[in-house]
Predict the structure of Glycolipid-binding domain-containing protein.
Amino acid sequence: MTFTTPPKTAAWRHLDARDGFEVAYFQPSDDGLRVEGCTTAVEEGETWIVGYAIELDASWTTRGARITGRSASGFRHLVLEADGAGHWLVDGAPAPHLDGCLDVDLESSAMTNAFPVHRMGLRVGDRSPAPAAYVRATDLSVERLEQDYVRVADEDSRQRYDYSALVFDFACLLVYDESGLVLDYPEIAVRAA
């Protein structure tokens, strides 16, 4: 089962880990997809805002991202560039610690978990690592995130994946809609629109 074209817009309500909201807009481009969005939240008493514009190629591999952030500590701006083969520049400087990563994953976003499932095209029972360039919400620092996806049996027209990120000692079942966007991200977010 393949995914349908994403909607023009989608939204998520963040819960448990933080209180907040995310809105994303999807715009097809000649060679892929542009995703623009914003997340606002309160987490452990700290407020933050993260805005993003992410460029994906036709295989849903991240090719670039412009990210802005605002918290009580100030305003930040970040530019990520990727060659599609696992090599990255962070604000124009080589980032060898990200070698092999094909996706950007924003700590602030439920939407970015769509990228690896689209790109990997796993069949039921398949497992794949999906290391990502992980961008923190409060300071926009970039680190490598080792994560793993296992596609489990579909439920109606919804694909489901066992997801884990060992560094956070976190695992859950992610449920995706027909377009491959997260509907339910336990302890993180639920789809609102």
